[in-house]
């Protein structure tokens, strides 16, 4: 079996042959990835169900179709993306050809997390292939069934010379990171991201970090409560609350909260029936340890559970839960919840809510529900977050035309669609100059005098 360094060296020498550069090679690989998705939809949905109890609809919507759409979008646009981009010139460069050439970095490393284990490896891979790189893929070991499926399928469909899946956990990944990569694309927690940055620093490797955090949802200025509750419940409890862009906590005034609670109960019952544990559309917490972590957070909260709260360890089940009567010191407001628990904190005005958000790390997503467009704009203009969506949750990340990524502690860099292609490309600023107009060019040569300044 090849060692990590042998794999990386092999990919590097393959990259140097230039095989990944032609448009046709990239299109062939992207088409092969599309075939992988189409031929194996049932196995993929099965693996996601094994790992997370993921309902088929959620698997198709948030993993399979997202990857498929992104591949098709890249196939349809790649020729344009690869075309050199000519830029404006000035008087001194008027007769030069000045353009940006997007070139692959070389051998890139893509490290994924377990909550969308397929999407978080394959969406970056689409960008890496489109940009002409070789890639090492390191899926999360926690979502074991999907990890194994990726390791089986990728070599069957894609070039084994250019793309390699490496399995393993933290120790394996640390060893892998001792090698020099030309770009690292990491999705996961903030704490591990620090180690990734440190490892990258040793090789001066550029890094994209797709991290998490606490994405707030603000409800102010009046809304259609029933619709707002349905959208909120869907976004929060999708994938059992284990989405990096799930609304983590809710801020609204006490009157809105009181109107919202029966509407949330009604939405939950409408979606999942009287016993969510028996409902096929409710996923599970990924592992025992993650289950304990969410339950421990809930246990440390001083708030009042008004909806849900039931749980079964053996089944890794936690009921969709809502907690009220908390203040800013509550355990549920200190770290990302990453489970089906929604704390609601009452703050009377949107200005207080904006201050609350701004006193914390910049979130990956920020949601505002309101009938008042000026209030939505006010929140947008007075806060900072990776992405923003009004009157719904999560859906903004399904568009390949919008960049997806964090800011500050929620990450650096972005991807999806053209943004993935750009993330995995070096933007080489090029100037083609001829030998003409030397008399004008000579104005810059020493010995300097006032006449040099007219150059
Ligand atoms: P995880 O435990 O699966 O870890 C992510 C990857 O890092 C895995 O491949 C794992 O093997 C590797 N890893 C773990 N420990 C390591 C170490 N010490 N050194 C090197 N590599 C190591 O996932 P996680 O970190 O629990 O992911 C959950 C977090 O990811 C949440 O905070 C969530 O918000 C965030 N997330 C962000 C996005 C996004 O797009 N921004 C998407 C999904 C998840």
Automatic annotation (TrEMBL):
<dbReference type="InterPro" id="IPR016160">
    <property type="entry name" value="Ald_DH_CS_CYS"/>
</dbReference>
<dbReference type="InterPro" id="IPR015590">
    <property type="entry name" value="Aldehyde_DH_dom"/>
</dbReference>
<feature type="active site">
    <location>
        <position position="244"/>
    </location>
</feature>
<keyword id="KW-0520">NAD</keyword>
<dbReference type="InterPro" id="IPR012394">
    <property type="entry name" value="Aldehyde_DH_NAD(P)"/>
</dbReference>
<comment type="similarity">
    <text>Belongs to the aldehyde dehydrogenase family.</text>
</comment>
<dbReference type="InterPro" id="IPR016161">
    <property type="entry name" value="Ald_DH/histidinol_DH"/>
</dbReference>
<dbReference type="InterPro" id="IPR016162">
    <property type="entry name" value="Ald_DH_N"/>
</dbReference>
<feature type="domain" description="Aldehyde dehydrogenase">
    <location>
        <begin position="12"/>
        <end position="426"/>
    </location>
</feature>
<dbReference type="Pfam" id="PF00171">
    <property type="entry name" value="Aldedh"/>
</dbReference>
<keyword id="KW-0560">Oxidoreductase</keyword>
<dbReference type="InterPro" id="IPR029510">
    <property type="entry name" value="Ald_DH_CS_GLU"/>
</dbReference>
<protein>
    <recommendedName>
        <fullName>Aldehyde dehydrogenase</fullName>
    </recommendedName>
</protein>
<dbReference type="GO" id="GO:0016620">
    <property type="term" value="F:oxidoreductase activity, acting on the aldehyde or oxo group of donors, NAD or NADP as acceptor"/>
</dbReference>
<dbReference type="InterPro" id="IPR016163">
    <property type="entry name" value="Ald_DH_C"/>
</dbReference>
<feature type="active site">
    <location>
        <position position="210"/>
    </location>
</feature>
